[in-house]
Amino acid sequence: MDLPELPGWMAGDKERLWHAPVSGGYEPEAECGHRIQGRVHARRGVYPPQGDGRSMCPACAIRRDVFWQAPVDLLRPLEEAIARVVFVAPELIKWPDEDFDEVLLAQAA
Ligand SMILES: [Zn+2]
Question: What is the value of pTM for the model shown?
Answer without folding.
Answer: 0.61
